[in-house]
Amino acid sequence: MENYGFLSILPPTLSIALAVYTRNIVFSLASGALSGALIIANFNPFMAFAEILEDHVFVQLAIPSNNQVMIVMFTIGGFIHMLDKSGGSRAFAGVMVKFIGSPVKAQIAAWVTGLSVFFTDSGNALIVGPLFKPVFAELKICREKLAYIIDTTAAPLCILIPFVGWGVYIMSLIENSYAAVGIDGDPIRVLLSVWPFQFYAFLALISIPMILSTGRDFGPMANAQKDYNRAVDTGKLIDVPEKKQTENHKISTVILPLSVMLATMVIYMGYFAYMEGIKSVHVRAGICLSYLFASIACGYLMKKHQNKPYDESLGLFFEGMQKLVFMCVILVLAWTLSSLCGELQTGAYLATLIGDKIEPSFFPLIVFLLGAIMSFATGSSYGTFAILMIIVVPIAHALNAPMVLTIAAVLSGGLFGDHTSPISDTTVLASMAAGCSHIDHVSTQFWYALLNGVMTVLAFIVVGFYQSPYIIFLIIIIQYLSIRLIMKFYGRNTFEEKNTLLT
Amino acid sequence: MVSYGFLSIVPPLLSVFLAIYTRNIIVSLSLGALSGTLILNSYNPFFAIVSLMRDHIFMQVSNPSNTQVIIITLLIGGFVGLLEKSGGSKAFSTSIIRFVSSPQKGQLATWLSGISIFFSDTANSLIVGPLFRPVFKELRICREKLAYIIDTTASPVVILVPVASWGVYIMSLIDNSYTGMGIEADPYAVLLDVWPYQIYAFLALFSVPMIISTGKDFGSMAKAQKKYEKIEEKQIVAIIQEKNPSLIMIILPFAIMIIVLSSVLGYYSITEGVQSIHVNAGLCLSYVFASMGCAFVMKRYQGKTYDQSMSVFFEGAGSLINVATVLALAWALSSICNVIGTGPYLASLIGDNLNPAYFPIAVFLFGAMMSFATGSSYGTFAILMATTLPVANILGADLVLTIAAILSGGLFGDHTSPISDTTVLASMGANCPHIDHVSTQFPYAILTGIMTILAFILIAIYQTPYMILIILLVQYISIRLIMLRWGS
Q1: Residue B398's CB: how many other CB atoms inside 10 A?
Q2: Does B317 reach chain A within 8 Å, measured CB to CB?
Q3: What is the ipTM of this complex?
């Protein structure tokens, strides 16, 4: 194979640069891929286009696993949309509102509800936000806090669940970059071994009850709460609790489909695990089938309780599928870029560049920081995963760095950057759903997220010395202690007076 | 292979029946496919479902040429979405209407544009359909007619172009079975010999202007038109004359599309011959570039940002996702038919004790049946080429005529079948209910089918390539007569 040397890093570099500059992930990936094809085709634009389509896009898409990922993504999209529209998830989340007395309990309730709506990331914010807005207003907790909670329970939760869209997406990226460097690895197994190292996700999730348990806030969040209190006291802000909509959607509209889904999945996975060992194709077929059956159940309930004809449900399903076209385009482009980088041997070249300069066991740390910066700049964790996975996995392979940790670092970094980035769609969604100004949400959340980020860096350093999945527990303890300490020195209890008021 | 005998035609029959009964193509295709996997998995529902997903849907969608069709479908969706948003398609229809004042001329224009897109059956339905929808609306012609015209100008045109994808596929089939029989022949030369006998394709193509020229319709199409007019009258016809988008909105994207496509196809026809992958790549590229052109003019004249255009593009692509689903299911069904042996079962019904001169007629009828049942002309071609050509060789029947009969039969069945992918694409392109399209098209296609049988009978008596001219005359006269008697 020809050695392209320096040119081989052009495609991913161009993609990253364009992603940061234009913030348009489709455009950047496409341009990066095109530059790669140009290099391979000796800068003949005509052949480059033909090359990109015939040898990469068409080939990548026709690879069975890639194809199946598309089908699975579309099915999941269809089901989630149906579920959202059935109003069942709202009813489901509404159950939590009943157990609320004090501000701390209300926030914990918001957290738990966020956790229970694990099946959808965008839906998470949109379901939990409106539901808890009146509760928070009643208990005089500022909206920034709500935005923070729902933002934190959205993406970090979904990334931990292998059978929702995120898991499928990540598995496919892993599979492709593994194939590009020629490592055998069943993506589901890889994902499961990466799981305990998804530090940022765990830390972010668990940080909420830790912070809540202190009953205090620090930094801009404390200021926001104080401003909010003052505004309410002086009557400048009349935050009349909105009347809760009386929705008579049955909670079963969400319970039944979800149990159908889980049951189907358990049966299929169980059967194949027992018979021939779980292969990725079975995972995908199982996921696909469980979501399909769940959608049928959802359609049935909508017919029964809301008198929606099946045709309409089918229409909803397709609407949901449409929403995922964009994500699938990113996937296709990422696959294309990855197969081009494979042909250009980008990873190997980069690895020779880095050479012995860094200790392989600390490579994940660098990846984490890189991912965080990129994701912060682009506002897209999806795009960050796609681009970084392509570049980083081959390097890690060449450097002999711990592969599982590297992947975990990509995920954590992307998540962290996305969480703090003002231009990320999940961040925007959270402030929208909580009804607070976007910039306020970003600035109040920043310090909390940064704390998690610092902890994650620490975790990757510790893991660099001693690799064990149980490190996470150690880090969680450290995190708890530091939150306690910070709150002691900088924290302010802003809810106290109203607690007494309430009682 | 286990022979399933009669059971092998259950899945397609169930699908066709359900399609007519429920009018929901997705449900009927899925249930038909499921019944097939049930039979294949000795009625174990668990395995049937797994196998449907794993061995058929997943496999079919990841078949390279199928994947390419899906990509093209979605790209076309995005492009058409952009054209609609930019006002390009409106500009197109207003300028078309300026030239074509009468419904008849409008339909003829559709026919001509359908013929001009000779390189791809998918593109044919999905481009011509949306472009002419507003024209038909303006001229008060029902959508079923549009669906009929684009369906008829899709596969029959493409099959007649020996250098495009279908021709390549057919040549490979001919090559296979000729080598199987030990006959040396250049498949391209054989295809050219067969060409003048592709009677169904010719008749179907010419039937459109013949029917249009009478200005009448008969059967269910006439009913559909009458119903449409009634609904139209009820609606207050308030055509809001918006600011007319300039014609550049359509000319630039289409110019780009044609230039890109012709340069890609031209390049490959010189260097290595146009294979279907090149056609597909060319189509993808031309749509992507045409969409960029469209985005450019939208930015220039309407101040739309590229980000906006991109999301319009994705919306448009998304709106065709159900088409892609139907395609995937249709492919799954035909792959099941393939495994279960529907085609060979039907082929085994052909007796060997036929007068060789009439053998092509029998082949035509069986091809039509098989293609109608499986909804796949490609599959029919493949099975019949492999099974009937050797029989024809033994019987001493004319091989060229037999091939022509296979092609005509497959096309005819595919044209009438409710579970065929091209039929689905036509109704999607014209945006009319699928079953309405199938039922209105049926009488017209049957007429063409009968003419084709007549042609094969005449050819059996006296074989000449010029027979097609006589049949065209006969067809013209009979259409005139039918319209005189039953047309309205």
Answers
A1: 19
A2: yes
A3: 0.75
